[in-house]
Amino acid sequence: MLEVEGLVAGYGGTEVLHAVSLKVARGQSVCLIGANGAGKTTLLRTLAGLIRPTAGRIFFDGADITNLSTSARLSRGLALVPEGRRVFAPMTVEENLEMGAFRRLWPRRAQGVAGDRDMVFALFPRLAERRRQAAGLLSGGEQQMLAIGRALMGRPRLLLLDEPSMGLSPKVVQEIFATIRRLNAEGMSLLIAEQNASMALRSAAHGYVLAEGAVVRDGAGADLLHDDGVRAAYLGL
Length: 237
Ligand code: ATP
Prior knowledge:
- The protein is α/β, with parallel strands linked by helices.
- The chain contains eleven helices and ten strands.
- Helices cover 38% and strands 26% of the residues.
- Adenosine-5'-triphosphate binds at residues 11, 14, 16, 34, 36-42, 83, 195.
C-alpha cells in the first residue's frame, strides 16, 4: 500500500533522513521505533507532505505521491495524527471532529459526517460524553482519542500515528493501543512512530528501527521484541 524508496529529507541545509526505505502492506500494522531525535517525526511529516524530500520516492496504492500536497494525500486516504495531538483547543469535541471532515464538507456539504462522528463515538465513548466540551479542557488521553477520531473523519485507509503514547499514563496508553489494534483488526493500515518500543512492537506485525535518520533493522514485531540488540538499545532490558 505504501512504499518508500530512498527518502532523503531534512530542514534547511540539514539532512535528517538518509535514504530511508520501508513498506506498509494493505491492512498491516507497522511500527517505527527509535530514540529521541532519530527522525521518526520527520519521516511521518514527510510522508504526510508537510516536508518536501530532496530525494527518494513515495508510492501509495502504486501511484507516485512524492510531489502531492498534504490535502491531495488526504483525499487518497493517507492521514497523519500529529505528535502532541494538536487539537483545536477552543473548539468543542464535535467541532474538532467536523474539522477532520472539512475536506469532504467543502465546497459542497458531503453526506455521512454524522454517521462518521457516531462511528468515532462508538470507538471512543468518552468523547461522546464530552462532545460539547472544549477540546482544551480534555485530559491528555482524551485529546489523543480526539486527534485519532479527527483523522478518522477524513476516512483514511492508512493512518500515520506520531507517538500516540506521549505523556500518557500506562493505563491510558493501554487503552489507546487497544483501540489502535481494534482499528487494525477492522482493516485499517497503520504506521506508528513510538518511543514506547515494547508497546509498539507488541501491537505491530512489522517493525523498523530508525537510528540517526537511517533504518538500521527491520523485522517481525515479535522477533524485534525478543532481539537482544533491540532489547538493550530500546527496551532498557
Ligand atoms: P522525537 O521522539 O523527539 O520526536 P524523532 O525520532 O521524531 O524524535 P525528529 O523530531 O524527526 O526525531 O528529529 C530528527 C532530527 O531533526 C533531530 O536532530 C532534530 O533536532 C531535527 N529537527 C527536528 N525538527 C526540526 C526543525 N523544525 N528544524 C530543524 N531541525 C529539526
